[in-house]
Amino acid sequence: MENTIAIPKGFYFLGKHIGIKKQKKDFGVVYSPEECSASAMFTKNQFCGEPIPIGREAIKDKCLQAFVVTSGIANVATGAVGRANAQKIVDKLANELEIPSQNILPSSTGIIGPQLPIDTILTGMDGVGDNLSRLNAKEFAEAIMTTDTKVKMHSIKVGGATLLGIAKGSGMIEPNMATMLVYLMSDAVVEKEEIHELLSNSVEKSFNSMSIDTDTSTSDTVALMTSNLYEVKKEAFAKALDELCLSLCKEIVKDAEGAKHTIEVTVTNCISKKEAKIIGKSIVNSPLVKTAVYGADPNWGRIIMAIGKVEEAHLDKDKLIIKLGEHIIFQNQQEITENFEKSKEYLQKNDEIKITVMMNTGVEEHTVYGCDLTEEYVEINGHYTT
Amino acid sequence: MENTIAIPKGFYFLGKHIGIKKQKKDFGVVYSPEECSASAMFTKNQFCGEPIPIGREAIKDKCLQAFVVTSGIANVATGAVGRANAQKIVDKLANELEIPSQNILPSSTGIIGPQLPIDTILTGMDGVGDNLSRLNAKEFAEAIMTTDTKVKMHSIKVGGATLLGIAKGSGMIEPNMATMLVYLMSDAVVEKEEIHELLSNSVEKSFNSMSIDTDTSTSDTVALMTSNLYEVKKEAFAKALDELCLSLCKEIVKDAEGAKHTIEVTVTNCISKKEAKIIGKSIVNSPLVKTAVYGADPNWGRIIMAIGKVEEAHLDKDKLIIKLGEHIIFQNQQEITENFEKSKEYLQKNDEIKITVMMNTGVEEHTVYGCDLTEEYVEINGHYTT
Q1: How far apart are CA A287 and CA B371, in angstroms?
Q2: Of A104, A206, A346, B163, which residue is the least packed, with the fewest Cβ within 10 Å?
Q3: Domain check: are A173 and A306 in the same one?
């Protein structure tokens, strides 16, 4: 995929090893010489990382010029020292790039608890301004990885403009908002007044509809900067942003810790989008549904259990239809027995599983994204050492 | 434990193989010749089993004489045929015992979807009235088991009376109410006006504070019958009922599918009991906390993540203290490093893990019960066939 990545005009990148991790890249910068329109959304976790409040301040004027990311240590639960360290990184970068500190959005990802090796980082940052390049987007994408096994980058053309997204994330990912780190850049013209609504609409349909293990990270951030060089129709840009966010969302789910199948649950003909999302999440988060998909077992009983446990759902059992792929497995309050073997085969032969739940109580629908639960997930997280 | 079980006066039991399972016991009855004071609480899952609405009706007059349970097939999502089958079992038992149908509370547990082999069951029920015995409580306990590996029975003396509890359950167990099947019997005198409050108070502190995999079963039932032979102080009975429910709750958690450790999370000095319970559940349900306990990793970062993701929690990070066993691992916004190795050793050497979270924002507390997440849980549920 990297071969086909297009880079929007006006952005420069860096990804390098600075000394937080033993050997792998652990420091990344995205930079725009001109001030960009910008928006960002952050984790709702109350124990958020120390860079987050700095980012919240920075984004208030809807103007940014740089993202800076350290990986390996999350800078979470590090108190006043951690906050000061995050600010030192921002100030050092501001000095190197000769831009205001408040035009920089910082993030950190990795282990919770330890302090950053701040002296090592600051020394390693000497001269970063001279090492930025339009060719280094992939290096930036590598520098923000932790347990990810794959680089997650994607670009889309929209009119004369380009939209680029770079993401990381594979565990501790759930509902609330966020999800992981996602950096979106474009050279399209987007007004400051419109940028937040555009971003939040796309995030709701993608990252906020994704769930790997129901845990909500302390550092999740999705941020968008536009260098405002090419006029693009608002609707076209919105559509491209939706598509880009969904692609990155699917890449993250595919790379989820230990996952063998992705699961896409679409709840249709529902009384409201909100209810469709709650029901979808209940299904995609159910450990029993997740293990059934892993075992390629068309266990629709676990799906109806997960629907039924949503107390606020408007459920008419007589109208409910459940499909695995194209095969109706439950209708008229009973199993469609002739589709059982076909459903089993569908689960066995595909690694992107689609579950459709037709509530038939209304006209709204919503899709959520998740993955199965495997022994490997337990192994990765049972033996990841602090 | 079975050797020391005391049986309250006035109750007779039966547990036998009737032909739902291949060989194991799958049919059980508890019977009282006299009308008992009774209360019951059921799953809140909207896709509840077909016996549940019959039980809800039966309990309305707070009077019961029998429990009847089939295991192997849950009689869930079986529509009108399933409801009629549940009623046929009740009516047949009423006929055999010569008691009113509405004095019988039925349950079924097992696989969701298939219809009960009703003819086999009704034929097998011929003469059950003649095979009830005060000696067969253990046979009843065995007859209600599915994936359970251990019989779960416990009795307590309260004044001159006896309180007996028999339970089953090891997966698909979570919050809402219920949990599994729990039958409580006593020969104490309990007024009909008081029995529901007594039961619901005890259930809130035990079964409703327990969580194995966040999934809520479709058939959960907790029911209490008292044969009203011995006068006992209300407070003493309430205390004994609390103790009995907690013992059964801990036995269920210990027998959870694939679990290697039980986890008891006590949230203290909290602003309300409700908040303490929500925070406790967020911790005990977190897959990352569960796998950390499994791996004996004192990963307090995952605990603060689970606290922080409760958006409504009143959190003062400066006041928060986290203990693993007796060892403070987090205080004053940082790891208590000298306790790290002791905490690790505590996790390695114990299979009943206690996590204490001191919020220090108020005076209320609540304890919740759960277990770790292991490869074996995934294996059991990934390869359990419908």
Answers
A1: 14
A2: A346
A3: no
Name the residue among B349, B310, B307, B292 with its Cα closest to residue B326: B349
Supply the CATH number for residue B134's domain.
3.60.70.12
Six-digit token pair at B248? Answer: 């059964």
* Chain A environment of B79 (Cβ under 8 Å): 317, 332-334
Instruction: Report the number of distinct structural domains present in chain B.
Output: 2
CA trace torsion B159, B164, B165, B166 (10° rounding): 170
> Hey, what are B13's tokens?
């039991």
Residues B84 and B222 in one domain: yes
ipTM: 0.77
pLDDT, tens only, B183-203: 999 999 999 999 999 999 999
For residue B283, the domain's CATH number is 3.10.20.340
Asked if B59 and B190 touch (Cβ cutoff 8 Å), the reply is no
How far is B279 from chain A, CA to nearest CA, in Å? Answer: 12
Name the residue in chain A with its Cα closest to that of B295. A382
Question: Is the domain of A250 the same as that of A315?
Answer: no
Answer whether A308 sits within 8 Å of B214, measured CB to CB.
no
B310 & B168 share domain: no
User: Per-residue pLDDT averaged across A148-157, rounded?
Assistant: 90
Q: B277 and B189 in one domain?
A: no
CB nearest A309 (choices: B45, B309, B310): B45
Give the minimum alpha-carbon distance from B188 to chain A in angstroms, rounded to a whole number. Answer: 35
pLDDT in tens, A38-73: 999 998 888 888 999 999 999 999 999 999 999 999
**A79: chain B residues, CB-CB within 8 Å:** 332-334
Is residue B182 located within the same domain as residue B109? yes
| Inter-chain Cβ pairs, chain A and chain B, closer than 8 A | 205
Distance from CA of B385 to the nearest CA of A (A): 7
B72 neighbors B21 (Cβ within 8 angstroms): yes
pLDDT tens for residues B126-178? Answer: 999 999 999 999 999 999 998 788 899 999 999 999 999 999 986 554 433 33
Is the same domain home to B366 and B310? yes
Q: Which domain holds residue A322?
A: 262-382
Domain stop point among A254, A271, A286:
A254
Any known ligand binding at A257? yes
The confidence score (pLDDT) of residue A174 equals 43
Same domain, B57 and B195: yes
Tell me which of A251 and B242 has the higher pLDDT.
Answer: B242
SS3 A51: helix
A385 is catalytic: no
Query: Given A214, A232, A254, which residue is the final one in a domain?
Result: A254
pLDDT in tens, A339-381: 999 999 999 999 999 999 999 999 999 999 999 988 888 887 7
Q: What is the mean pLDDT of chain B?
A: 91
- Report the percent of chain A where pLDDT is more than 70: 94
DSSP state of B155: E
Quote the radius of gyration of chain B (alpha carbons, Å): 22
